[in-house]
User: Which sequence fits this backbone?
């Protein structure tokens, strides 16, 4: 039987797309198969094949045994923005905001920032792309600056990624594009953290980068802009990092241009398969990823696939400290349940404020102090803590909880332990 | 927790401790500092040891850090660049220099145009702050709009009177017929049987007389202390009421299985040991006690109907005494007192809010019975949904509340307590305030209902045009949730609130809010416990005086010093000294 690709009708922020093909139709790689019905982005087929089924969530395409070279290129292209829109480009760092909407601003001589921070630990596909194809990203930045009337461009990248920085330096030809080197702290890649670090302006949690005359775009998004403009190529594939308890070893492996609709299972098998017992499969990074079923399909916003070791068991009563920068309360509760712990109390970092249903940090990566919250959880009967804080806040918790004889788990622990990565604890 | 600029200014003399890891070169700002309000918690839990040479918040703001330091590190001079050395200020407390000596309102002037006179021997570094409203509503308005007639004249207007005739009782005995002659009260013994008809849940009633010299007697937990009073003329709160002095009813109960009724904390034991004699809600030292002991149906002691049945039965007995008391000749009265209900025009309108138990089970109160401190004809506040009900001062004085309260004996306010509530008297008799009424609000079981009634109270207070309120509660724990809500709802309408409760050690407040900044502690137990001695931790006249002074202080805009973290009786004693 030929392979079935499940292409989700919602791979972006906004509404569910409307299919524009019917069951039985033959499609090519790159054929437009669904259009937005509101805020959203076009979705194209990632393979050659026949539409087998359409339901409210997805289009299922049965792949042809022989996949032809090339793809159906974009038509209806015009301006940069029109091309980006036609190509269905969305924020590929994980947020999934439609790029043609984001770039449809007049930045008054402002700045486009290429987010090359890749701040979730274990993920490597952005750095690999920068090292192997910096030109594609650099050109994307130039197009984005042109589209938004920006005077400046900045690559925001962690100082530790020396090879990637060198690769970028080689391709930068304009004086108005610079590299900003950032410290190795989580969450430096958060949009508002980047703007604060690069431009020295701290935005309110409900403000968009445009308030600072800035647009922030992930490096892969930028490369897709170049592909759309120069090759008329729609978004039909995604770069993915696979890491964890795999037979091929625990090092992170980047898979470039994985067709959208490929399942997690296929990718794991391609990476050598799961090595024995495992805890869960995380889609995304250790901090903000979510647990997924092994048959989940890759979308435009997928980034990491982490196969974790089995959960550590914890019988003591657990206090949850929820942070805007890491796992949310629901995710922490899930981890606590998987560890077998009962929950004594839940506290939220003082700086975490709710914006449109999710938490945002008022000053990402700068701790407001956690002693009061930890004391409150202890008072509520917590014997151990499970936290989802950023590097700086975690450090503060480490200044407090051990003195209270409260062991700490971090929401990233099971992912980090799996690959022998140092745990998120005290800052060195 | 990092703090705001305002908070840093407020706490400029408190120790400076970084809340989180702070790196070399950082110019210290409030967001780097831990909230001084939680420092005691941090110290107590061993998280922080504050060295003697720690700098104050006011000294570190704006200074540059010389090296990386971790979270919760106290800032000392060696960590900073360019720190100004602390100058020791000379204390002149001894000669009274820093103390405000006297704050007095000028009674001769009209209130809204009045003066606040501060007379201070010596002053330095004094920072006077007035709420803008004081100027707007007072001085400025009064002078600019003086002819508008907004200024109320200082005047006392008596709107209602209640005459109380007191009769001395020398002896009480059980006999064949109820009578009251020559100071001798005879109670018909057969009433014990007849009173069973009051409610089918009452199974057995016993009655005995306990004279002051014979109090070393065992007793079941005391459900209530009930005065004997009867209407002669008028309704509750007006006309004439006859009262028997030197005698009081005490009600105790068991269910058929031998379980104590009202036993949420019990004062079961010897009567000479388990009663704080002389408290407003207790028998006085010379009082004869008529003890009525009721056995109610099995397993009804923890429901509303069981204890209520016992109270009804006891009321049947007292009612027969009331009938003879009504006929007592006025000439035999040992004392006649006229209670005036006075509207004190031109002085700040204030209200007394009394939280009463209304959780159902045995927690209930009967309001406005037909006879003083009676049961018949009254409404139960649980049936009324615990919503606030306003009584006039005289309605309360005339036995408007019959308590079915069971919470801890030391802090429960029984029927006699309401009959001679010292806080009501203190507020009614204070010529500087205008007591407009007494609000009784129930403490419901469910949190949603607590919020509902508290909001009704807030709205009611908002319509009363009051400047101040004293909120009291009995018991501790669950009812403190109501207590906090009630104070908040009144306080957020800009009304000055003083809270009065037993909290101390065992009853520490479980919740709080910004409006709970003026609190009166009524604990009398040395260890701060619910001592299980009847009435020990209830409001007595000294507490009432402190509460009234606290309210007047708050209304005058004088800041009230924050309470210590831990209950300390010394604070109460120090405050008591401030009350003349």
Assistant:
């Amino acid at each position: 039987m030929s392979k079935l690709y499940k292409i989700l009708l919602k791979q972006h922020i906004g509404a569910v797309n409307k299919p524009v093909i019917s069951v039985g139709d033959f499609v090519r790689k790159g054929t437009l198969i669904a259009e937005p019905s509101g805020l959203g982005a076009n979705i194209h087929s990632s393979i050659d094949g026949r539409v087998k089924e359409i339901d409210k969530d997805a289009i299922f395409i049965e792949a042809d045994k022989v996949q032809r070279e090339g793809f159906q290129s974009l038509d209806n292209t015009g301006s940069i923005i029109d091309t980006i829109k036609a190509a269905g480009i969305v924020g590929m760092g994980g947020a999934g905001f439609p790029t043609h909407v984001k770039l449809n601003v007049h930045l008054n001589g402002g700045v486009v920032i290429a987010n090359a921070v890749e701040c979730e630990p274990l993920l490597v596909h952005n750095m690999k792309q920068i090292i192997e194809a910096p030109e594609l990203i650099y050109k994307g930045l130039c197009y984005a600056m042109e589209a938004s009337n920006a005077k400046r461009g900045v690559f925001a990248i962690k100082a530790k990624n020396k090879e990637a920085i060198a690769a970028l330096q080689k391709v930068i030809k304009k004086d108005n594009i610079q590299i900003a080197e950032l410290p190795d702290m989580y969450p430096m890649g958060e949009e508002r953290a980047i703007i604060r670090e690069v431009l020295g302006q701290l935005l309110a949690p409900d403000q968009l980068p445009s308030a600072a005359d800035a647009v922030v775009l992930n490096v892969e998004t930028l490369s897709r802009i170049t592909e759309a403009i120069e090759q008329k190529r729609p978004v039909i594939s995604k770069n993915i990092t696979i890491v964890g308890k795999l037979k091929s070893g625990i090092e992170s492996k980047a898979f470039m241009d994985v067709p959208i609709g490929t399942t997690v299972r296929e990718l794991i098998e391609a990476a050598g398969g799961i090595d024995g017992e495992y805890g869960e499969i995380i889609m995304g990074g250790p901090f903000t990823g979510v647990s997924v079923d092994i048959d989940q399909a890759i979308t435009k916003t997928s980034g990491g696939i982490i196969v974790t070791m089995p959960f550590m068991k914890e019988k003591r009563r657990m206090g949850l400290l929820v942070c805007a920068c890491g796992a949310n309360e629901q995710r922490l509760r899930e981890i606590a349940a998987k560890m077998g712990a009962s929950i004594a109390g839940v506290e939220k970092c003082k700086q975490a404020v709710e914006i449109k249903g999710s938490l945002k940090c008022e000053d990402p990566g700068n701790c407001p102090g956690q002693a009061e919250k930890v004391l409150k959880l202890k008072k509520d009967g917590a014997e151990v803590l499970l936290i989802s804080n950023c590097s700086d806040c975690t450090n503060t918790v480490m200044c407090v909880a051990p003195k209270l004889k409260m062991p700490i788990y971090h929401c990233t622990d099971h992912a980090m332990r799996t690959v022998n990565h140092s745990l998120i604890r005290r800052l060195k | 927790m990092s703090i705001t600029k305002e908070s840093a200014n407020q706490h400029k003399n408190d120790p400076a401790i970084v809340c989180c890891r702070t790196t070399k070169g950082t110019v210290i700002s409030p967001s780097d500092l831990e909230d001084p309000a939680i420092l005691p918690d941090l110290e107590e839990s061993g998280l922080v040891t504050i060295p003697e040479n720690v700098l104050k918040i006011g000294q570190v703001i704006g200074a540059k850090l010389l090296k990386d330091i971790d979270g919760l590190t106290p800032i000392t001079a060696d960590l900073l660049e360019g720190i100004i050395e602390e100058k020791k200020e000379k204390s002149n407390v001894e000669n009274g220099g820093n103390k405000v000596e006297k704050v007095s309102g000028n009674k001769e002037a009209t209130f809204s145009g009045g003066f606040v006179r501060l007379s201070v021997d010596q002053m330095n570094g004094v920072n006077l702050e007035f709420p803008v409203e004081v100027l707007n509503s007072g001085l400025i308005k009064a002078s600019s709009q003086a002819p508008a007639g907004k200024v109320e004249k200082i005047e006392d207007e008596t709107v209602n009177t209640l005459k109380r005739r007191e009769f001395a009782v020398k002896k009480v005995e059980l006999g064949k017929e109820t009578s009251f002659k020559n100071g001798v009260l005879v109670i018909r013994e057969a009433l014990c049987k007849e009173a069973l008809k009051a409610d089918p849940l009452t199974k057995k009633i016993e009655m005995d007389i306990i004279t002051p010299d014979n109090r070393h007697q065992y007793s079941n937990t005391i459900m209530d202390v009930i005065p004997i009073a009867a209407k002669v003329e008028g309704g509750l709160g007006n006309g004439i009421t006859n009262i028997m002095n030197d005698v009081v009813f005490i009600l105790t109960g068991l269910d058929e299985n031998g379980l104590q009724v009202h036993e949420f904390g019990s004062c079961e034991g010897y009567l000479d040991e388990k009663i704080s004699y002389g408290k407003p809600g207790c028998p006085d030292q010379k009082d004869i006690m008529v003890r009525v002991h009721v056995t109610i149906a099995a397993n009804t002691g923890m429901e509303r109907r069981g204890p209520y049945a016992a109270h009804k039965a006891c009321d049947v007995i007292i009612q027969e005494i009331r009938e003879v008391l009504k006929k007592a000749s006025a000439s035999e009265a040992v004392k006649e007192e006229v209670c005036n209900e006075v509207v004190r025009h031109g002085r700040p309108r204030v209200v007394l809010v009394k939280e009463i138990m209304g959780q159902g089970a045995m927690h209930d109160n009967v309001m406005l019975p037909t006879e003083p401190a009676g049961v018949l004809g009254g409404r139960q506040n649980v049936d009324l949904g615990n919503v606030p009900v306003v009584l006039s001062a005289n309605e309360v004085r005339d036995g408007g509340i019959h308590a079915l309260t069971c919470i801890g004996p030391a802090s429960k306010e029984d029927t006699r307590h309401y009959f001679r509530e010292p806080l009501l008297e203190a507020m009614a008799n204070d010529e500087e305030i205008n007591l407009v009424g007494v609000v009784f609000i129930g403490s419901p079981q469910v949190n949603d209902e607590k919020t509902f009634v508290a909001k009704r109270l807030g709205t009611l207070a908002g319509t009363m045009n009051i400047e101040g309120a004293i909120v009291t509660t009995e018991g501790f724990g669950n009812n403190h949730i109501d207590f906090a809500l009630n104070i908040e709802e009144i306080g957020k309408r800009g009304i000055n609130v003083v809270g009065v409760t037993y909290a101390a050690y065992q009853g520490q407040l479980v919740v709080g809010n910004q409006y709970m900044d003026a609190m009166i502690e009524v604990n009398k137990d040395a260890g701060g416990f619910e001592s299980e001695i009847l009435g020990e931790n209830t409001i007595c006249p000294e507490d009432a005086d402190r509460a009234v002074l606290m309210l007047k202080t708050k209304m005058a805009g004088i800041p009230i010093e924050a309470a210590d973290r831990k209950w300390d009786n010394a604070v109460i004693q120090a405050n008591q000294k401030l009350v003349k």
In short: Chain A touches chain B at residues 350, 363, 366-372, 375, 378, 392-393, 395-396, 399-400, 403-404, 427 (CB under 8 Å). Residues 134-147 of chain A form the longest helix (14 residues). Chain A has a mean pLDDT of 94. The domain at 89-231 of chain A is CATH 3.40.50.11540 (Rossmann fold).
